[in-house]
């Protein structure tokens, strides 16, 4: 005679759990293992690629900012020379003739811009004059112009 032993449901669950634990340690059951700490090679490579791209963009932006500052500095010097030329004309220190204006000081580390005077209308006392400041930045020529009226008694 065969005797069937009936176990309680809780005991059956414990037996199944013990068997699955022992099989899991032996590698027989394909259960997802918990993820190990750290990053995979793909994640690290992608992070480095994104970081490298960001650094390249920052370097490009910094070069553009430096070039823009150089352009602004050259423009500031050209405006300074136009103001000086205008003041010398107003003071009557220079004859009103068309041509280059020489003798202006050169502030800064680059050669001074060339300032030209062009007399447009030569009336009896009030004369229309255009002052031009010619300068270059990185080999590109630029020009600033100032049109004014000069009174000569």
**How do the helices and strands follow one another from N- to C-terminus?**
HHEEEE
Total strand count, please? 4
Q: Quote the distance from N terminus to C terminus.
A: 143 Å
Helix content: 40-55%
Rounded mean pLDDT is: 81
What is the makeup of the main sheet? 4 strands, antiparallel
Strand content: 15-25%
Unreliably modeled segments: none
Number of helices: 2
Strand order of the largest sheet: 1-2-3-4
Radius of gyration: 42 Å
Helix-and-strand structural type = alpha+beta
What does this 3D model show about the protein?
The chain is of the alpha+beta class. Helix content is 45%, strand content 24%. It has two helices and four strands, in the order ααββββ. The chain has a four-stranded antiparallel sheet with strand order 1-2-3-4. A hairpin with a 3-residue loop joins strand 2 (114-122) and strand 3 (126-137).
Give me some keywords for this one:
single chain; alpha+beta; four-stranded antiparallel sheet; 4 strands
């Amino acid at each position: 005679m065969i005797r069937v032993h009936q176990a309680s449901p809780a005991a059956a669950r414990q037996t199944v759990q013990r068997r699955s634990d022992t099989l899991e340690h032996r590698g027989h059951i394909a259960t997802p293992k918990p993820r190990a700490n750290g990053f995979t090679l793909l994640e690290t490579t992608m992070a480095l690629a994104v970081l490298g791209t960001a650094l390249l963009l920052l370097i490009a932006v910094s070069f553009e900012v430096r070039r823009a500052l150089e352009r602004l500095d050259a423009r500031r010097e050209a405006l300074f020379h136009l103001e000086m030329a205008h003041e010398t004309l107003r003071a009557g220190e220079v004859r009103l003739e068309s041509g280059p204006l020489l003798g202006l000081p050169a502030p800064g580390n680059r050669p001074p811009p060339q300032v030209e005077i062009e007399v447009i209308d030569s009336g009896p006392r009030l004369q229309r004059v255009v002052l031009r400041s010619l300068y270059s930045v990185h080999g590109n020529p630029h020009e600033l112009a100032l049109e004014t009226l000069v009174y000569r008694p």
